[in-house]
Design goal:
The complex is a heterodimer of chains A (277) and B (307).
Chain A: H1 5-33, H2 37-41, H3 55-62, H4 64-97, H5 102-115, H6 118-129, H7 138-163, H8 166-174, H9 179-208, H10 211-216, H11 225-232, H12 236-239, H13 241-265
Helix pairs in contact in A: 1-13, 3-13, 4-7, 4-9, 4-11, 5-7, 7-9, 8-9, 9-13, 11-13
Chain B: H1 14-50, H2 69-75, H3 78-109, H4 116-128, H5 131-141, H6 148-155, H7 172-197, H8 201-209, H9 214-242, H10 246-251, H11 263-273, H12 277-306
Helix pairs in contact in B: 1-12, 3-7, 3-9, 4-7, 7-9, 9-12, 11-12
Classes of the chains: A mainly alpha (277), B mainly alpha (307).
């Protein structure tokens, strides 16, 4: 399609506006994390730091509570991700491969879990976990995250399983492979990109989660990274902008890694050509 | 696992395979069933029921069934109503503006412009960022004395004094809405872009042969073809925005003077600051009813006009 030069120019103006709207906040955050305290005090803030240095990062990492909260977040995110995958993979396989009465029920549950405000779930959860002494503990949060991120993980995995051609499994069974064998040596390898994507998604949701952690964790020793960062807010004057920005950048790193990965990996058509029509 | 020994693929023995399959499926469901029933289905039902009780925080407090008592009180609670109004303004403003902005971006990304890759990457990053970090970032941006936004506005002589965007009664809600749009754009853009890319190219070629302008192609091909995707993503956006919590909690905590007190924040305070579990659950119930009525209405209208 040919586009007139005026229209083309307008398109570029629009793209640049979007780039500024989307990119400038990120640029400012990163630049703030590299600025010295003197530069924050200056009356005319500059977009890029004049003397970029990493002292904000070292300051942030010297903050005891921050490092501990990162460790807490890491433990919680890894544990809930592993649990979600172990529990969801068989369900996703069943959902994609069998016509069962559980299928509409599961899909209904996935939908319901999106619609209902978490406040309705969190109060009873709190009341269930408290007599079990699981509030204010890391295992308690892990279990809650597992259940909470399962609907979306199931949704994703189900799609990936459905994309593995059934013919491959049939071919394997014709060749005499058992179902378990088929799953382990045919389905799993093909599912790997899907499993990794789902794992990363689950990890990031747990890493970023705020509401359940806020309700369930009171002990300062157990607080997750978002909770500790949120506590600094409102006290910016004392805490200084620089270390806060640096800590925020650090908190975003896992998501960015996830991201770089997704862009590179998931665009390749892994299964194209696996089935010859 | 019993699944291991079976060699007959499901397709080859459809009739006899059916009951076996069901049994097999149930085995695969088992490990997920217990946690989901215990920690998702049961809490939800109990949460809905809690709205009809006077439950309070604390370990040994009696809980009584009080019917519609909480709802009666809510009916006369002005703060609750104003919180709902704010919630509706927030939900509609963010969802609609987000959709318009995301559609524009998706259309641009669907052309052969330069910077598409950069724009696409940038458009996705907000989605992966922790909401708390997004809130901190925007607090830095909108800061009355150190923030670049005020600096730029003053340099352009659009204002002669720094504006405290998040602390001022008149600007707090609009400022929070802008952040909401920023955060929610990625998901919407990506979904719309996927929809755009699946539209059959030959439709546009045929329209171009008939001499249709770009504008009329947009109205007569793009929008109708995208309809299902649009309905799906705007419905989801509406639910997510109405139920959103963390972003605004960190940005303003509902202030100043309750001007950004979204229903979720209000219910959270009621439950965990004042300990009124029953009342907070009743608010949750009202929220669910509103979402369902709203969605039902929206989806029915959309789907009917499609026929």
């Amino acid at each position: 399609m040919r586009t007139r030069p005026a229209a083309r120019a307008a398109q570029y103006v629009a793209v640049i506006c979007y780039l500024i709207f989307l990119g400038f906040p990120l640029l400012w955050l990163i630049s703030s994390s590299l600025k010295s305290p003197q530069e924050f005090a200056s009356i005319t803030p500059s977009i890029l730091p004049k003397h970029p240095n990493l002292s904000n990062f070292t300051d942030a990492l010297e903050e005891q509570g921050l490092v501990r909260s990162m460790w807490n977040s890491l433990q919680i995110s890894v544990a809930s991700t592993v649990l979600v995958l172990v529990v969801s993979l068989p369900v996703a396989y069943a959902l994609a491969r069998f016509r069962s009465r559980l299928r509409p029920l599961t899909n209904g549950w996935i939908l319901v879990s999106q619609v209902f405000p978490v406040i309705l779930i969190v109060i009873p959860l709190f009341m269930i976990l408290r007599p079990l002494h699981l509030t204010n503990t890391i295992p308690g949060v892990v279990i809650v995250y597992m259940v909470w991120s399962m609907p979306f993980a199931l949704w994703m995995l189900q799609g990936y399983v459905a994309a593995v051609p059934r013919e491959l499994e049939e071919a394997a069974s014709v060749d005499g492979a058992s179902r378990l064998r088929t799953i382990v040596s045919i389905v799993m390898p093909l599912l790997r990109p899907g499993l990794i994507a789902t794992a990363m998604f689950t990890f990031i949701s747990a890493w970023n989660e705020f509401f359940f952690a806020l309700v369930l964790l009171q002990d300062p020793e157990l607080k997750t990274l978002p909770l500790v960062l949120a506590r600094f807010v409102g006290a910016e004057g004392q805490v200084q902008f620089g270390p806060l920005a640096a800590a925020s950048v650090l908190a975003t790193v896992p998501s960015l890694v996830f991201f770089a990965f997704l862009q590179r990996r998931l665009t390749s058509g892994l299964l194209s050509g696996a089935v010859k029509g | 696992m019993s699944a291991a020994t079976r060699t007959v693929a499901p397709k080859q023995a459809p009739k006899r395979g059916r009951p076996k399959q069901n049994r097999e499926a149930i085995f695969l469901f088992l490990p997920a069933l217990l946690p989901v029933l215990l920690l998702s289905v049961y809490p939800l039902i109990r949460g809905i029921a809690l709205g009809f009780t006077d439950a309070r925080a604390g370990l040994n407090v009696d809980t009584n069934f009080i019917g519609f008592g909480n709802f009666g009180k809510l009916l006369h609670n002005d703060l609750f109503w104003s919180s709902f109004k704010i919630g509706l303004i927030w939900t509609l403003a963010v969802t609609i503006l987000q959709f318009v902005a995301a559609l524009g971006l998706a259309l641009l990304l669907n052309t052969n412009l330069r910077f598409r890759g950069v724009a696409r990457t940038l458009a996705l990053i907000p989605w992966a960022m922790p909401p708390v970090v997004v809130a901190i970032m925007w607090r830095l941006l909108l800061h009355p004395t150190n923030g670049p936004v005020n600096e730029i506005l003053q340099n352009l002589h659009l204002t002669d004094h720094p504006i405290n965007f998040l602390g001022d009664f008149s600007t707090a809600l609009p400022a929070v809405i802008v952040v909401g749009i920023w955060v929610g754009m990625p998901m919407t853009t990506v979904t719309l872009l996927a929809g755009l890319q699946s539209i059959d190219r030959s439709l546009y070629e045929a329209a171009a042969v008939d001499g249709a302008s770009a504008w009329s192609q947009f109205w007569n091909i793009t929008l109708p073809q995208l309809k299902t995707v649009i309905v799906a993503i705007t419905s989801l956006d509406m639910i997510w925005n109405f139920n959103s919590f963390g972003l605004v909690y960190v940005l303003t905590a509902g202030g100043p003077g309750g001007k950004t007190m979204l229903p979720m924040l209000f219910a959270y305070n009621e439950a965990f600051r004042y300990g009124n579990f029953g009342m907070a659950a009743a608010m949750g119930d009202v929220m669910v009813v509103i979402i369902i009525v709203f969605l039902g209405f929206y989806l029915r209208n959309r789907l009917r006009s499609e026929a």
